[in-house]
Structures are given as structure tokens and as C-alpha cells.
């Protein structure tokens, strides 16, 4: 009998079910650590992929799998990884996977074999993603033949480390999550107005000054992040050693990291460290520097391209960046440049005139071309946001189109022989709200402007409607963007990214004719179990638990108690107070009491969400929230939730 079709995400191009099952380590007890009876046999050039598989299997099964290049080794069951007779039409990232009762064979080039491993893991029970040896699990996979290759070569996720800081280990966790979804490009936004995050040896103030700001900002509860230093400043940065370590970790997962160094706009952090590279004229907007909490207003965060020393400074930075990141592409931003200073600063006006440049848009194009030319001397290609081509086509540059609309910049780039990556706000901004605005503070944490539902992300058509068929190959692929203004922690990041990134992974991988939203959401039920075992947060699309309620409120600030003993848990315990009808209840502060003694309290900080630090829950103790609250009339009804993302 054929097994039910397994729930693979992204869906392979061809999957033929066969009869029977393969069992990892047949007839072995599960005492750990045990050397597995199943051997992983590899060609010598696939040793890394074999070791990766063995380490995944060790963590969840507790068995040590021997990885051997002796492909004729006798074993009860074998998993063979080989490039031998790989189908050339499947390309570098395609693979064949044959699961039979006594063997698994994955055939392809190294990247393809890596993706075959991901499919094999998804054929096994979801516990295969467990972070600790899982007991009582039958490690079986249905027999199947898979022939698979991705639709697009750029399968990306953008992480913004500038608005909020994510540690080296958190970045590695994101890379692990990408691998599960066969994503191959991490676009890493490393600086902006609010921070500079990458150590540059020649210009040390970039991180000494630019990596730290006064507060968490964006109206967020400061307890939603741990990225504060001893002086109470918010931030952090990656040393060059950190970067090298992360790049190796990514390479082992066949992921290319594309660093983004923003220029000429969104550069207030760099200019706070080195104001001499801004325009600086008396009528220019200069700063306020030293206050990274002020965002890019009227051009204060814009470099001056007319100063030769500015170009030298940027080239120094890009030289160190290209030494650290081995990939073909360096992203240089280029979005939302405010031209205010360029139109006032005589040096820029004079340079524009001498070049015969009529508009500030063309002046940006001139700047972009100079940077693209410099990148070419390093054998690299720049990427820029939609506005990069504001002043016309830039050579040695790929366009990343985020602007949704009929005047598609991607179409302009692609029809002029350039390449484009699609990341329109309408379907790829997965930092936006996922459900609906009524969910704010309840089913979703603080969010950014628009909405991108799971269905919208899944339905995305990466090929611009106006693009003639002859140019579709110039669309490299799709990327989900997580701008981090409202993403202060790893858990928030994953909550925003998943499951929409699962949908975009399938947009990128699977032939459009095979896609089906109902089928996808059915597979997602199993896939979310995988995410659970892997410890990856996601939006569960469900209202979180209600832990208390009120049916009236005092008319002047007074204490009101709510018993939450049955709901409390250790760690950061989050509550959201939502007025559902009647007069809105204002909250001055909320305390957490244990047996009547205050163990924590928070003042209202602009949001109805309070985060309590609970060191541990004492058996038999009573826990209460004590709010100091009031309403205009006593008629106030509301609910207190324990929001999803911390579940
Ligand atoms: C962007 O969202 N400003 C690229």
C-alpha cells in the first residue's frame, strides 16, 4: 500500500510514492549515545553534507551515524550521498532522492544533495527536528522517488539587525531555519539611521559610536529586548570574527550572506560617528548627530558624494566588507534617499553641474554607478533597492524591487538586460501584520503599518505582469523582508517570519502549476509540528489565552486585582489589557504580586502590554496582577490576554 503523500514544504517538483518504508537504525534500542547501524556513505566532496546530516540525526535520535567515504561499506541500511551520475538538467541545486526499504540515495551536486537531505528529514516524523533525543518515535520514512530542482536561484530572507540587534547565535538559528525551507540567501541589513552593526577596523567609531543608542525606541517596551549594555545603552555589533564564523556557518548550509551597507541615505549612524562625510553646509540638515533615536529627517543621514574623502571612506568600508563576505553581491541600499542637502550644498551642486546632471535622482544614479564601478574592481556586483535606478540604468547592479505598483522598476531593469529580485511590500514585507488590525496586542505583538496575509504571500507571482516573456529569466527570485522596527527579539522575528516565509519558500521553489493553497495549509499543520520540535516560533493564527477580565473600572486611579495563579509561568510573562466595550480603561502601572508581595511592576509605556519577570513559580502560591487603573465611566469591559508569541 502506498503511504499518504508526505507534507514536504516547499513542495518538490516530482514525488512518486512507492510501497514500503525505510527505517533508520532498524532493530536497535534507543539508549544513547549509540552508534547507528545505518551508515551514511558519501563521495569525498560530500563529506560536509554527510556530517551535517549525521549531526541533525544525532541531536534528535540520539544515534551516532558513521560518515564514511567507503561507499562499498557493508551495513544493514545505508544513506548514500553521491554526485555520481547526477542529472545535469537538475542544475547545481537539484537532486534525486530515492527512499527504498534498505537504503536512501541522494544524488546531485553538493547544494542539491543538501536539499535532498532536507527533504529526507521531512519524510521522517516531525520529531526529527527535536533539539534533544526523542523517545518512543518510529524513525521511518515512506519509500518514495523525488526529482526536484528550484524554480528560482535567489530564495531570500532579509534580516534587519540595525533597528534591533540579534546576537551571533540568533543569526545562526535563523540560518538553520532557512536551511529547513531550502532558502539560500540571507540578506543582512547591517546599518541604518538607528545603528551601525559591523566592525570596520579602519573606522572604529562606526561601531564604538554607531552601535549604541539611548533606548529601544519605536515605542516598544524595553523589556522586549535584552540588548542593553552595562551603561544602559541599547545595541550591539558583530566583530569581524563573528562575521567570519557566521559566514562559515551559512556556507555549511549552502546559504550565501549578502551584506547590506546603506548609502547614500539611511546613514545617520555612520554620520554620527563621522559627520565629516555629510554635506555640512549652513543650510543643510546636519544631524542632530549623537542621537541615533532621530531618524532620517530632511537629509541629515545622507552622505556627500561630492567630497572625495566620502568616496574613499565608503571604499574602505566596502573593501573590508568584501573581504568578509565571499559572495558575488554587496547590497548598498539606496532607498528613500532625501535629497534635501544635495540641493543646497554648493559642492554637490557644482559637481552635478560639471557632470551635466539635471536632477538629484540622476545625481543618485551617478553615485550608485561610482560604487558599482568600485565593486567591479573587487569582482563584485552591487544590489540596490528600487530607487537605485531612479536616475536611469546602472551597470554592474542588480535591482531589488520593493515598491509595489504599475511603474515596476523590476520591469525596467529586466527589459534593459539587468537582473531583479522581487520583494514588493504587498506580499513580501513579512514584518507587516499577518492577521488583521483587530488582532493588535491580542493575536499579534506590535506591528508595522500594512498587512500581508499568509494567503497573499502564497499567491505571489514573482514575474511582473508587464514583463515580456523574453525577459522572465532576468527575475532572480523572491525575498521575504523582516524590517525590525517592531521586531525586538528572536521570538518576535520568528513569529513574524513563520509561516509566511514557508509560503514564500514555496513561491520560490515550486512550479506555479503545482501550487495549491489548501494543500499548502494542510501540509503546514505537520510542518508547524516540525517548527515546534525545532524550537522555531511562528504565528499560530489563534487568539491567545484570556487570563482575566473586568466588567467595570474605577473613576479615578485606584488598585484593581486580578488572580492569574492558574496562568502564570516562569520567565518573561506577558499580558495585554484590551478594553472590549464601554469606556476605555487607562492603566498607570501594573504590579505582579506573589502571595500578596510585589515581585515586579511596570509603568504604562505607551502600549497596553506589560512584561513581568518571573524568576520561578512557587507551588501553592497565589499570583495576582494589581493594576492602577481608571476609566471615564464605570462601564468598562475588557479582557487580559497572555499573547501568543511568548507561548
Ligand atoms: C524599504 O523598505 N525602504 C526598502
Task: Write a structural description.
The structure is a single chain. This protein has 647 residues and is α/β, with parallel strands linked by helices. It folds into three domains: 14-148, 2-Layer Sandwich (Chitobiase, domain 2), CATH 3.30.379.10; 154-534, Glycosidases (TIM Barrel, Alpha-Beta Barrel), CATH 3.20.20; 546-646, Sandwich (Jelly Rolls), CATH 2.60.120. Helices cover 25% and strands 25% of the residues. It contains 15 helices and 31 strands. Strands 16-11-10-23-20-19-18-17 form an eight-stranded parallel β-sheet. The protein has a seven-stranded mixed β-sheet with strand order 1-9-7-8-6-3-5, covered by helices on one side. Strand 19 (397-401), helix 10 and strand 20 form a beta-alpha-beta unit. The chain is globular and about 80 Å long. The protein starts with 13 loop residues before the first strand and ends in a 6-residue tail after the last strand. The model has no long low-confidence stretch (mean pLDDT 93). The structure holds acetamide. Acetamide binds at residues 335-336, 385, 402.
